[in-house]
Each structure stands twice: as C-alpha cells, then as structure tokens.
Amino acid sequence: MYRKLSKFERLRKEADHLWTEILIRKYGKKCFVCGEEAVEVHHFVPKQQSAILRYDLENGIPICRSCHFQIGIKSDPIFVTIIAFKKGKKWLDYLAERKKQHITVNSKWVEEQLIKLKIYATNH
Fold first, then answer.
1. Residue 115 CB burial class (10 angstroms; 0-12, 13-18, ≥19)
2. 88-116, pLDDT tens digit by residue?
C-alpha cells in the first residue's frame, strides 16, 4: 500500500520533474560531458550541499548514465573539471555566490521555485 505524499513532497516531486524537463529542452538530449544521449540531469553542486541551488537552472546539465556514474559513484574529478572548463569561470563564480546564500526549505519556498520554473517553461 502506498502512503499519501505530503504537500511538501508533492511540490518537490513536481518541481524536480519540471527542472529536469526544462534542462533537457534547454540543452537538448546530448550529454554535456561526452556528447552521447543524455537520459538524466546532474546537479553540479549536489542538492545535499546547497538547497538554494536545487532548482537553479544554472546548476544542472544533461548527462548520460555512464558520465553520471563516473561523477556520482566513482567521484572522478576529471568529469567535474571538464564541466567547469566548458561552463567557465563566471558560471563557477555564480554558483559559489549562490551557494553562500541560506534559505529555509519548506512548502512555501518549494512552491515559489515551482512557480518560477513554470514561468520559465512557458516563456522558453
């Protein structure tokens, strides 16, 4: 039997899905690292390290399973270096500044992020 999701969980699930969908549309279905078919989206700064970057479109890239495995499981630094090189210093500086900001993650905040994502999706 399935348990009913809380409002927070429903909002977060919807926002996660929309964030992924937007980034696949924005970049196409090619892995940002190797160019193979992208099947998922990777948070450059992990969600556990920065809640504020969870739904930031600048923090995500489409990626294939193989590259995602190398980054997430193997922690291969060459992949992080490739991404950072391709994105550039301004991008890294932006993420570093955003990462310093602290927020309270609750239903209201996730709802605000979802609204922003919906507006972006509608306009792009």
1. exposed
2. 999 999 999 999 998 999 999 999 999 99
Dihedral angle over CA of 8, 113, 95, 70, nearest 10: 50
How would you class 40 by CB atoms within 10 Å of its CB: exposed for 0-12, middle for 13-18, buried for 19 or more? middle
Helices (H), the chain: 7-27, 65-72, 77-87, 89-100, 107-123
Angle at 119 between CA 116 and CA 124, to 5 degrees: 125
Are the beta carbons of 64 and 73 closer than 8 angstroms? no
pTM of the model: 0.89
CA distance 5 to 50: 24
